[in-house]
Design goal:
single chain; about 120 residues; mainly alpha; 4 helices
Length: about 120
């Protein structure tokens, strides 16, 4: 269970740091392309490797909706953090990335579980 939290924190931190680098070099269009690429990658990874057999075989449409919600909401939050803090100094950006990735990483598994249960795709 701890590996899920660590993975979510690391993915969030890497996304934020790369987002800061991309928005400095390629402006907002590069960041949008990067966010869409990360969303598609996480979406397909979750569908083929993380979904339970029951959810994938019996409720595939709900599983697609859950994956879309679960991965789009944190990405939109991180995208907003990057856009609103792009004018800050680099040290402050690193601190913002570290704190927000810890918060999002710790809340992500709970958010994913509650979303899957509320949609009715696969609940404990």
């Amino acid at each position: 269970m701890i590996s899920i939290f660590i993975t979510a924190i690391l993915v969030g931190f890497v996304f934020l740091e790369l987002g800061y680098l991309i928005i400095k070099r390629f402006k907002i269009s590069g960041l949008i392309f990067f966010a869409i690429f990360v969303f598609i990658s996480l979406y397909y990874y979750a569908y083929f490797f993380e979904a339970s057999d029951y959810g994938r075989e019996n409720r595939a449409s709900m599983l697609l909706v859950v994956n879309a919600i679960v991965y789009s909401v944190p990405l939109v939050i991180m995208f907003s953090i990057i856009v609103f803090s792009k004018k800050k100094p680099d040290n402050i950006q690193h601190i913002i990335a570290a704190i927000s990735s810890m918060l999002l990483g710790l809340l992500f598994p709970v958010f994913a579980l509650l979303t899957a249960c509320s949609v009715g795709a696969d609940c404990l």
